[in-house]
């Protein structure tokens, strides 16, 4: 009896320590984010306080109104959401198909192809950007939605990520399906993908975030006002020497929200997959 | 006789797999070859040329770009600093991320909030992040000096000191990318069937034994992925360098991609920038291959 | 055993997926969402006058200047109804460069763009832009006096290898900003800002203060702008240092552009002045966000340009502050000129209409109106004769400081070759001498060595 209590106390202490250390770490990590939100409500005087001030003297809702009015942000928002959603959806499809081939099908040239995929990630974007742009130009796609969408529909990162995950799925599952006469596509669609929800959710988050936050590609491929994205809009608050910090921060908070929402939503898939918890019953 | 029929069967299987494989890969391959593979080869071609990007023609210069970069002392300095940054961020980042992922996989209160909290640095814009980090590192009013001061550590001039600036950059780098690896590890952990743990518990395995015998081996593909990706991304670190230190003070935080960027878009020497990118690629590729070899020999697991 | 378990799993998966209703619902939702988004994506912009020629104009004015620009364009369009100006915002700095490179390569360059003179050479070498003589000597040209009316420094800045390739749209220069209250507190007359280097040195120390006696200054007399030479503020640092080089009688490069001269005695003097103040005030441990510090009364004097005036009027409203000309050096008084320049691209289908717009922009009355609305300085001397502008200057003494300084404003002799690299070398010397603690002469010589090597390589190449 007494021993039991001791054990509980020790366990409780350990768990409290774990909780405490994680919450402290989380707090440290989230401070800049909180600070960004607080800053978005400050006026220039408060932002430019040295030593810095935490809280705004008076909450400036107006920053948001002014930031929103500085450019047609409503339109920019829709563009960003549209492009990011299509790219995310597309990448989930193309990457899972490619990843399945790399993880499960044994065929001539597979490994070489995979190493090429890996290798391309090691060439920095800065030197491939201009040639990529030229391809788009040859296709006659400059200044269009496809210019922002199509190049994003294939991803070495996404393929690699899903491949690694698919490889952890026990093969026996599929073999059972093959015996039942399922095609490879059906196996991917009905067995592998449902089991890979955490990985798919992860890829969705990263792709959505990457596309939504992209600045440089959208900058060079788009000219027209009606195609511009949020990140391009935010640039209007920064000059070579001047930054309108109040508006930039308000704009940044607005630009962060959709990603935060996608993250929150995608987290749902971070619980154990159906199959794995279903075994117990 | 049975051997040859099996061979035939395999050959047939291989051919069928080849066609199916291509079918599965086709959407990716088409886009990949246009927007990734072609540009990659084109920049390789450019590394033997001189091109300012404004003009429509480029002159062939042979190996001159490579020759020049091998004799540029700045290149070697930049390489050293890139390696330092990578060594500083990758292990630290992976250890903390794994710890967090495991902790958040357990019964802990406020999981959703915590995960989101650790992910916020990833989504915050680098410009906004740099603003607060410059304050954290401020020599007079900075949070960091205040915090270390409590333990009696004398104030450090984080961003104006050649040695401290790299540490400052590493800290911000870990902060910024921790969420990525945490999420990846979490996804990997979700993939480990509970049955394995349950079976181990029946056998009376302790926590550490479960960690080493189930979690670690089952996570190998994920860990491998994270290791390679972290290495690539920290070798290619650019955004936070640009906004926090801009390569200063006196070039002490200038890293590889920053150097490439400078030559490409500051001095308009795309040929030279491409040559740097390729030399750098060769080094990364060798490092990755070594890792693959090591992982294979150690775990025997087909991680790659 | 394993297989049995997995069989169960497999059927579970199949069952859960066989729920056609939820899956279908989700899919439908996605489709609707896409359709809504597409609908928004495809809505057409408003219809326009079909006869008008449209001139696309890329600029990087910040949000606060855009109303002034719109006003300008509106006025132009009423005067010239058959030309429509499509002003497009392009983020400045590195983004503008990347945008221009890709636009030229894809033949989607605008008719007019504003550029920074530091990459003028590359545009000219690529044969991407018109030489202005093409228009100036044309039917709708400019008279000689009109050209001479533009501040010579601006024209010099707009030229390359003695040929004019761009037209300044507005001017800027650098002046001293100071906090009058802090002057009073230190026992100095707030109406007498430092007039020469000696006073600058002296005031910098007098105006510094260590409130908490920890041995470090909490208030800085004069902010010496040191930024990483490799960073985006490198040019800004260099731009602020050049006037000191001129004030000491120095030059960046010789007349023939075969050798750099910034490591001359004048250069050493200028850099020594900066280094002395930097070391004495221990600026190494001070924040680099000088405008933040100025607004918080932590900096008594620093340097800035007229583009910040509208911002300072609100940001510094609790402060008693003023602008003054830069202090004179041992040789003379000088400041540096900047500004944005307009070029016409050869890809333009309507270069003459583009020129009409540029020519109109530099008309004195337009310049006056533009200056008063935007806070930038006019590019022509005769603007000072426009009555409304004279009145405006009297009401805005800080703005007047900048306009008056245009008479002593100089420009770095345009570097015909390796301009970007040489500018970088100078920035490296400034950083090394202050942050790095190197001797100014040694730092300048080391940089000059690198610059001269580049210039020499050019000569040997052309000889061959």
Strand content of chain A is under 5%
What is the helix fraction of residues of chain C, given as a range?
40-55%
Tell the overall outline of chain A: flat
> Mind telling me the CATH superfamily name of the largest domain in chain A?
MetI-like
In quaternary terms, these chains amount to heterotrimer
The biggest beta sheet of chain A is recorded as:
none
CATH superfamily of the domain at 53-171 and 338-406 in chain C: Periplasmic binding protein-like II
Shape of chain C: globular
Structural class of chain A: mainly alpha
Number of strands of chain C: 12
List the uncertain runs of chain C.
1-23, 39-47
By CATH, the topology of the domain at 53-171 and 338-406 in chain C is D-Maltodextrin-Binding Protein, domain 2
Low-confidence runs of chain A: 273-281
Give a short summary of the structure.
The complex is a heterotrimer of chains A (281), B (304) and C (464). Helices cover 71% and strands 0% of the residues of chain A.
Would you give an account of this structure?
The complex is a heterotrimer of chains A (281), B (304) and C (464). Chain A is mostly helical and 281 residues long. Chain A is built from 15 helices and no strands. Chain B is an all-alpha fold. The two termini of chain B are 34 Å apart. Chain C has a domain of 188 residues: D-Maltodextrin-Binding Protein, domain 2 (3-Layer(aba) Sandwich). Helix content of chain C is 49%, strand content 13%. Chain C contains 20 helices and 12 strands. In chain C, α3 links the parallel β1 and β2. Chain C starts with a helix and ends with a helix.
Keywords:
heterotrimer, A: 281 residues, mainly alpha, MetI-like fold, 2 domains, 0% strand, disordered C terminus, C: 464 residues, alpha/beta, D-Maltodextrin-Binding Protein, domain 2, six-stranded mixed β-sheet, four-stranded mixed β-sheet, 49% helix, globular, disordered N terminus
Which helices and strands, and how do they pair?
The complex is a heterotrimer of chains A (281), B (304) and C (464).
Chain A: H1 2-39, H2 44-47, H3 62-70, H4 73-104, H5 110-120, H6 125-138, H7 145-149, H8 156-166, H9 171-179, H10 184-195, H11 197-213, H12 216-221, H13 230-234, H14 245-266, H15 274-278
Helix pairs in contact in A: 3-14, 4-8, 4-11, 8-11, 9-10, 11-14
Chain B: H1 2-46, E1 49-50, E2 59-60, H2 64-70, H3 73-105, H4 111-123, H5 126-136, H6 143-150, H7 162-190, H8 194-202, H9 207-235, H10 239-244, H11 256-266, H12 270-299
Helix pairs in contact in B: 2-12, 3-7, 3-9, 4-7, 7-9, 9-12, 11-12
Chain C: H1 2-17, H2 20-42, E1 53-59, H3 66-79, E2 83-89, H4 94-105, E3 112-115, H5 120-125, H6 133-136, H7 144-149, H8 152-157, E4 159-160, E5 163-164, E6 167-173, E7 175-179, H9 180-185, H10 197-206, E8 220-222, H11 234-247, H12 265-280, H13 290-295, E9 299-304, H14 309-315, E10 321-324, E11 335-344, H15 351-361, H16 364-374, H17 387-395, H18 397-405, E12 409-410, H19 419-434, H20 440-463
Parallel strand pairs in C: 1-2, 1-3, 8-9, 11-12
Antiparallel strand pairs in C: 3-11, 4-5, 6-11, 7-9, 7-10
């Amino acid at each position: 009896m007494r021993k039991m209590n001791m054990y509980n106390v020790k366990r409780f202490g350990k768990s409290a320590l774990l909780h405490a250390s994680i919450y402290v770490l989380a707090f440290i990590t989230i401070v800049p984010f909180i600070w960004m939100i607080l800053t978005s409500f400050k006026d220039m005087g408060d932002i430019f306080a040295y030593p810095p001030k935490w809280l705004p003297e008076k909450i400036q809702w107006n920053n948001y109104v002014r930031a929103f009015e500085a450019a047609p942000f409503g339109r920019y928002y829709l563009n960003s959401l549209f492009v990011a959603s299509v790219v995310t959806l597309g990448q989930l499809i193309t990457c899972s198909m490619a990843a399945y081939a790399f993880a499960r099908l044994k065929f001539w040239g597979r490994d070489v192809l995979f190493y090429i995929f890996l290798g391309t990630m090691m060439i920095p974007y800065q030197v491939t950007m201009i040639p990529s742009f030229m391809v788009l130009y040859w296709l006659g796609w400059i200044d269009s939605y496809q210019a922002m969408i199509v190049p994003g529909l294939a991803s070495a990162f996404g393929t690699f990520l899903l491949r690694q995950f698919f490889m952890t799925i026990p093969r026996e599952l599929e073999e059972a399906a093959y015996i039942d006469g399922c095609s490879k596509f059906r196996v991917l669609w009905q067995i592998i993908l449902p089991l890979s929800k955490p990985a798919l959710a992860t890829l969705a988050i990263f792709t959505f975030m990457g596309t939504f936050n992209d600045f440089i590609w959208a900058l060079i491929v788009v000219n027209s006002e009606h195609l511009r994205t949020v990140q391009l809009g935010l640039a209007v608050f920064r000059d070579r020497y001047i930054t309108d910090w109040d508006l930039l921060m308000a704009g940044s908070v607005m630009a962060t929200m959709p990603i935060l929402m996608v993250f929150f939503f995608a987290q749902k898939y971070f619980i154990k997959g159906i199959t794995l918890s279903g075994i117990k019953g | 006789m049975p051997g040859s029929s099996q061979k035939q069967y395999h050959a047939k299987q291989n051919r069928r797999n080849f066609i199916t494989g291509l079918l599965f890969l086709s959407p990716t391959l088409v886009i990949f070859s246009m927007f990734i593979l072609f540009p990659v080869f084109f920049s390789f071609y450019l590394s033997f040329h001189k091109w300012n990007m404004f003009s429509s023609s480029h002159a062939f210069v042979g190996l001159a770009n490579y020759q020049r970069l091998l004799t540029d002392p700045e290149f070697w300095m930049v390489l050293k600093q890139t390696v330092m940054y990578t060594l500083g961020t990758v292990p630290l980042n992976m250890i903390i991320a794994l710890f967090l992922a495991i902790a958040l996989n357990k019964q802990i209160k406020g999981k959703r909030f915590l995960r989101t909290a650790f992910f916020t640095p990833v989504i915050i814009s680098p410009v906004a992040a740099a603003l607060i980090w410059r304050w954290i590192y401020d020599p007079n009013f900075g949070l960091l000096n205040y915090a270390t001061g409590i333990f009696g550590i004398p104030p450090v001039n984080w961003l104006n000191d050649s040695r401290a600036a790299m540490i400052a950059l590493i800290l911000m780098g870990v902060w910024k990318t921790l969420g990525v690896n945490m999420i990846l590890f979490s996804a990997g952990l979700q993939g480990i069937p509970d049955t394995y743990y349950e079976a181990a518990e029946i056998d009376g395995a302790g926590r550490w034994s479960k960690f080493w015998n189930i979690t670690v081996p089952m996570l190998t593909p994920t860990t491998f992925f994270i290791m390679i990706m972290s290495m690539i991304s920290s070798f290619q670190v650019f955004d936070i360098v640009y906004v926090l230190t801009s390569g200063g003070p006196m070039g002490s935080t200038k890293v590889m991609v920053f150097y490439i960027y400078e030559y490409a878009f500051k001095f308009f020497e795309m040929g030279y920038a491409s040559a740097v990118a390729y030399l750098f690629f060769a080094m990364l590729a060798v490092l990755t291959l070594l890792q693959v070899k090591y992982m294979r020999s150690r775990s025997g697991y087909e991680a790659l | 055993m394993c297989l049995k378990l997995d069989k169960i799993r497999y059927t579970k998966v199949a069952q859960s997926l066989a729920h056609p209703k939820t899956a279908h619902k989700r899919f439908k939702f996605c489709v609707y969402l896409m359709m809504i988004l597409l609908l928004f994506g495809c809505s057409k912009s408003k219809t326009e006058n079909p006869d008008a020629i449209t001139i696309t104009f890329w600029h990087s004015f910040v949000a606060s200047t855009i109303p002034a620009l719109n006003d300008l364009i509106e006025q132009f369009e009423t005067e010239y109804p058959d030309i429509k100006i499509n002003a497009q915002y392009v983020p400045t700095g590195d983004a503008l460069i990347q945008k221009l490179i890709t636009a030229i390569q894809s033949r989607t360059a605008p008719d007019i763009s504003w550029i920074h003179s530091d990459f003028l050479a590359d545009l000219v070498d690529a044969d991407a832009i018109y030489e202005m003589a093409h228009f100036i000597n044309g039917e709708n040209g400019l008279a000689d006096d009109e050209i001479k009316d533009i501040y010579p420094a601006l024209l010099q800045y707009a030229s390359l290898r003695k040929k004019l390739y761009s037209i300044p749209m507005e001017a800027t220069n650098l002046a001293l900003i100071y906090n009058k209250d802090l002057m009073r507190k230190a026992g100095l007359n707030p109406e007498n800002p430092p007039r020469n280097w000696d006073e600058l040195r002296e005031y910098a120390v007098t105006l510094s203060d260590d409130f908490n006696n920890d041995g470090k200054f909490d208030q800085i007399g004069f902010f010496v702008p040191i930024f990483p030479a490799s960073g985006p503020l490198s040019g800004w640092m260099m731009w602020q240092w050049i006037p000191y080089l001129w004030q000491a009688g120095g030059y960046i490069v010789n007349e023939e552009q075969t050798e750099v001269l910034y490591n001359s005695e004048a250069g050493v003097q200028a850099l020594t002045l900066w280094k002395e103040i930097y070391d004495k005030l221990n600026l190494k441990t001070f924040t680099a966000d000088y405008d933040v510090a100025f607004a918080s009364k932590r900096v008594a004097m620093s340097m800035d340009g007229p583009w910040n005036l509208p911002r300072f009027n609100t940001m510094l409203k609790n402060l008693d502050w003023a602008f003054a000309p830069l202090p004179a050096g041992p040789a003379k008084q000088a400041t540096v000129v900047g500004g944005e320049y307009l070029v016409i691209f050869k890809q333009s289908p309507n270069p003459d209409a583009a020129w009409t717009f540029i020519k109109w922009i530099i008309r004195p009355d337009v310049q006056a109106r533009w200056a008063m609305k935007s806070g930038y300085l006019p590019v022509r001397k005769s603007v000072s004769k426009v009555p409304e502008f004279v009145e405006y200057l009297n009401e805005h003494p800080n703005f007047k400081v900048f306009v008056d300084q245009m008479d002593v404003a100089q420009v770095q002799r345009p570097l015909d070759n390796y301009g970007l690299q040489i500018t970088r070398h100078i920035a490296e010397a400034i950083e090394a001498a202050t942050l790095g603690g190197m001797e100014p002469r040694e730092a300048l010589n080391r940089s000059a060595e690198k610059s001269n090597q580049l210039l020499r390589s050019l000569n040997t190449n052309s000889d061959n």
